[in-house]
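User: Could you go from structure to sequence for me? I need the amino acid at each position, not a summary. Structure tokens:
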């Protein structure tokens, strides 16, 4: 077999579009298709080479490539001007704002990744909240969002696959946990103060979960809030001078709340 006849494709393209689309694009790039003058002729040429791929899959793959204008029908040339669209960069650095949304090119890439629309909308809100809070300027918000969305989608898929597990004694939160807590003005060092008690509590409970990161975020926020309230109470006590009452004489003499604490039954 001639090595030139081997079928190759780009892993990056296959990850985004699927293996069949990546193979077809490679055939176009290397001019291995006999006829590209019409839709039917393209499909026929592909079927003659990719005999192991069923006709329905070939049809869908070709339609997807044409939809995103990654291939062109041309009577005069077989050479395909292929380039996966990338978000256009705006070299003027800007801060994130509430009305921001991915541009057309970024939206096309997200659609090709087949990420759930509801998941995408949720992560878009989180993305904007995070970067608005940080106030950082960027000139590549579209690329930054795509990278963030792909990472979050991969985590979502993995979390659905993983079975619930009891917490390990050496469990440690993901880096994203500290980014989320930072939005509530809780530093990494402050959060880690509660890690040991969190592990001991859930280890004793023996409950199996696959959302330990979320549980830890809830635990830290709750403990931090309690500590802040306690600190305020202590501060208020300091303002009452020794030997002084916090209420006037008439209010103190009319106060009978102490009686409610006595149980006569």
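Assistant: Here is the amino acid at each position, in order:
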């Amino acid at each position: 077999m001639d090595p030139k006849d081997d079928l190759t494709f780009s892993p990056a393209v296959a990850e985004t579009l699927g293996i069949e689309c990546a193979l077809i694009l490679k055939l176009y790039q290397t001019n291995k298709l006999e006829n590209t003058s019409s839709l039917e002729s393209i499909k026929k040429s592909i079927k003659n080479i990719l005999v192991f791929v069923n006709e329905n899959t070939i049809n869908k793959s070709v339609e997807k490539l044409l939809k995103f204008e990654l291939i062109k029908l041309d009577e005069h040339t077989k050479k395909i001007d292929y380039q996966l669209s990338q978000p256009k960069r705006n070299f003027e650095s800007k801060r994130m704002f509430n009305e921001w949304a991915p541009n057309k090119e970024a939206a096309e890439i997200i659609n090709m990744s087949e990420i759930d629309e509801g998941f995408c909308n949720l992560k878009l809100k989180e993305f904007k909240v995070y970067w608005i809070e940080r106030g950082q300027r960027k000139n590549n918000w579209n690329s930054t969002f795509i990278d963030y969305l792909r990472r979050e989608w991969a985590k979502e898929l993995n979390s659905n696959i993983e079975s619930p597990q009891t917490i390990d004694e050496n469990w440690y939160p993901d880096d994203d946990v500290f980014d989320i807590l930072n939005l509530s003005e809780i530093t990494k060092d402050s959060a880690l103060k509660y890690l040991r008690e969190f592990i001991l509590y859930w280890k004793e409970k023996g409950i199996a979960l696959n959302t330990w990161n979320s549980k830890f975020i809830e635990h830290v926020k709750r403990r931090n809030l309690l500590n802040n309230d306690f600190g305020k109470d202590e501060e208020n006590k300091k303002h009452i001078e020794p030997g002084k009452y916090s209420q006037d004489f008439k209010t103190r003499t009319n106060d009978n709340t102490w009686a409610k604490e006595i149980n006569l039954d």
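One structural detail worth keeping in mind: The first strand starts at residue 94 and ends at 95.
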